[in-house]
Description:
Blueprint: E1 19-25, H1 31-45, E2 56-62, E3 68-69, E4 75-76, E5 80-81, E6 90-94, H2 106-117, E7 122-125, H3 128-134, E8 143-144, H4 150-156, E9 162-163, E10 168-171, E11 174-177, H5 182-194, H6 197-206, H7 231-242, H8 250-256, H9 261-272, H10 276-294, H11 299-305, H12 311-322, H13 326-336
Parallel strand pairs: 1-2, 1-6, 2-5, 6-7, 7-11, 8-9
Antiparallel strand pairs: 3-4, 10-11
Helix pairs in contact: 1-5, 1-6, 5-6, 11-12
Amino acid sequence: MRPGQHRPADGAAKPAARLKVGFVLSRSFTLSAFALFVDTLRLASDEQDRSGRVLADWQVIGSTRHLITSSCGVQVAPTSDFVDPTRFDYIAVVGGLLTVENPVDQQTIAFLKQADAKKVPLIGVCTGTFILAAAGLMKRHESCVSWLHYREFRERFPDLSVRSDRLFNLDRQRGSCAGGSSSADMAALLVRKYISRDAERNALEVLQIEKARAPADIQPRRPLYDDYDDARVKAAMITMEQFVDGSMPIEKLAAMVGLSRRQLERIFIEKTGMSPAKAYNRVRMERAKSILAQSKAPLIEIALDVGFENASQFTRTFKRTFGQTPSQHRAAASRAH
């Protein structure tokens, strides 16, 4: 049964259909992301915390039954070999450390491609989206990754659409999430959609989570130099940080947060006291300031990184912003350390 065929159980006399999820764990996978996802399913599956698989079921599937070591050292054993992927409503790939050269083997890649061919939805949990992207399985789908991994995703997969201003994303036959507690949020959405709101509420209450967050909720992180109470401003600021070379037009930035340029201008003036263009320039200068203090990169290299054509133009803008030249700032930072 495909997920679209499930009908919520709210108000229904007969039991809800089971939600079946297969988990693929990568080498050095993130234990918290996996645990929060699967425990949300467990607690939603029955009543009174009996851990019965009444409304949901899950398996850890793999090419072997060998223990898989998480990034914290805890090991998990697969509970199933690779079977027909249509036995599952979703297959979730749980990633982990990006420094692992081959996070999954070729049999696993082949299995994921088989699942895709059979129209089984795939979910990238934490850096599991990197695994799906490397397998060519995120084309025509938007990826959601942690702000911590955004730049590396863009470098590895420059032709793919990615964002890090939200917690998770469900895009047709794909899902992706930033990891951490957002894994529980994504699992809760699946529970609510395919089992019931009561099941979702039961799981979240036991997990001591007050309320599941929505896909469009902003990732909890502090922007580069300030924080604001408007989600649209925060999302725009995060996007500015991701395009510190100045390549993001204000019109497109406004569209990304669901506003016209005029609306974005008005909100920025109200919330930050500056225009989006001025805020964007400030973000670029703050990034340059951070690079100056932490590296010995030449000024021209830093200038190019933050979108200036030459060092002299960069120096003038930096001094106008901070009251000192880049060289003066670097010297002061060096003395402070």
